[in-house]
Amino acid sequence: MKEKAQISYKNEAVFITALRKGEESAYAYLMDSYHHKLCLYAYSFCKDKNLAADMVQNVMLRLWKKRTSLKIDLSLRSYLYRSVYNEFLDQYKHRKFILNLEKEYMTAVNTLIEDDESNLHRLIQHVKKEIDNLHPRCKEIFLLSKYEGLTNLEIADYLNLSVKTVENQMTRAYAQLRDKVGEKLQSILFLLFEMYKKA
Fold first, then answer.
1. Domain limits of the chain?
2. Of 62, 80, 98, 198, whose CB count within 10 A is highest?
3. What is 2-101's CATH topology?
4. Cβ count within 10 A of residue 190
């Protein structure tokens, strides 16, 4: 049954029409397709898994309640991501930590989610491949920083290296990856390593 629903809902107009009619299979498909990804996106802002899940749930329920007003030509994916972002702003605009968020970084992440999903997947796979192509020591230091979350000083102590050596290797890694991937590197790295932590 699930496979049949997925095939029929690949056409977004058909999917939105089913949502407007209140078909439960359409809501189930919506959750299967977007819930986990939206939770990752929400987590990138609030850094709290429970809050992220709550925000996504609010967005999903709100969409379901006003489903009859959805436009057939709506880009549902973009709509959902924008809704989660707006939900975050609504909940946290009066909290002081929002002042510490990097506007440029948030903009970069928002730019990424406007990409076609298959293209985003290709970009992530491309970055993973380029990380694997780094020099072994350079790759080790880079992953200790990005995957384990260690500081340069902690990496230096762990590997018995100078902090300067670690800094040089990190600079080399970023330069090589940016040369291969381009300006979207930082946002892709964030999504990639948040996915690792979620898995």
1. 2-101, 117-198
2. 80
3. Rna Polymerase Sigma Factor; Chain: A (1.10.1740)
4. 17
CA–CA separation, 89 and 99 (whole Å)? 11
Q: What is the pLDDT of residue 138?
A: 93
pTM for the full predicted model: 0.49
Longest dimension (CA), the chain: 63
Which class does domain 117-198 fall in? mainly alpha
Cβ contact 84:116 at 8 Å: no
Is the pLDDT reported for residue 90 higher than 90? no
How far, CA to CA in Å, does 71 sit from each of 9, 68, 124? 16, 9, 31
Residue range 51-85, pLDDT digits in tens: 888 889 999 999 988 888 888 877 888 889 888 88
